[in-house]
Write a structure and sequence with these properties.
single chain; about 250 residues; mainly alpha; 9 helices; about 75% helix; about 0% strand
Length: about 250
């Protein structure tokens, strides 16, 4: 005889209650957790432990890798500048801005990550290539993406600092050199876009301040008048569509 669905749903709850009752009466002691470090029996065990440590380190650095080698930096800085230009304090909140930047990053980087998955990760999992070859193939699409948005001046700066021979082509530039050049290029581009965003809202603030001064209303904070006007202007021109559309299209040739 099979138990009814209601009985199946109550079984986990009954188990928890029985375990709690046994613990209260001292019949089930609290388990202890011990962490020990033993000697390795073979070099393979040491290599496996080092690989696990390396994977954990990469997972720890994954947010930084996501932020610094993708379109996330430019997008999140521009959105932060937009919020400051509007003068809306914490609206939209940081969680919304970061979430929007992340999903836009996933949208923009999808072709790159698909290339990495199909040509590097999947063949490596199928044992069709070595680890070093998979790593080389995985960095190639990402390096190609960063090359499109790296300025020669920034690249020359880090080539000189690294004291490496001058590369003949940009494909000869090492990965560790192109990453910081790409980052400072993205920062400069984001600040340029932020400046352009500030200009129309700054004009609104100046006009409102001048009108209030001419009317003798010096005790009235200009932000109380300019903020609704800036929000109305931003909504009327469909600002989110324009800004998000321009940001996204700036990463596609």
């Amino acid at each position: 005889m099979r138990p009814s669905p209601a009985l199946k749903a109550l079984l986990p709850l009954a188990s928890i209650l029985l375990l709690s009752a046994a613990t209260v009466h001292g019949q089930s002691p609290i388990p202890g957790v011990n962490i020990t470090i033993g000697e390795a029996d073979s070099p393979q065990q040491v290599a496996t432990s080092l690989q696990i440590l390396f994977i954990l380190t990469v997972l720890t650095l994954a947010p930084a890798i996501l932020i610094m080698t993708t379109s996330f930096t430019r997008i999140v800085i521009v959105l932060a500048f937009l919020r400051q230009a509007l003068g809306t304090q914490q609206s939209p909140p940081n969680q919304v801005l970061v979430g929007l930047a992340l999903f836009l990053t996933f949208f923009i980087m999808e072709p790159v990550w698909s290339d990495v998955y199909n040509n590097a990760f999947q063949p490596y999992m199928d044992n069709r290539m070595s680890q070093s070859e998979a790593l080389e193939r995985a960095t190639a699409p990402l390096k190609e993406f960063m090359q499109r948005f790296t300025r020669e001046k920034d690249l020359a700066l880090f080539v000189d600092i690294a004291k490496i021979p001058r590369p003949d082509t940009i494909d000869d530039v090492p990965f560790y050199v192109i990453v910081p050049a790409f980052i400072i290029g993205e920062l400069k581009t984001a600040f340029q876009i932020g400046f352009i965003l500030y200009v129309p809202f700054l004009v609104v603030d100046l006009v409102v301040s001048s009108v209030l001064m001419s009317m003798g209303m010096m005790m009235l904070p200009p932000i109380m008048i300019s903020l609704p006007l800036k929000l109305m202007l931003f909504v009327l021109v469909d600002g989110w569509n324009l800004i998000i559309g321009s940001l996204t299209q700036s990463f596609f040739p």
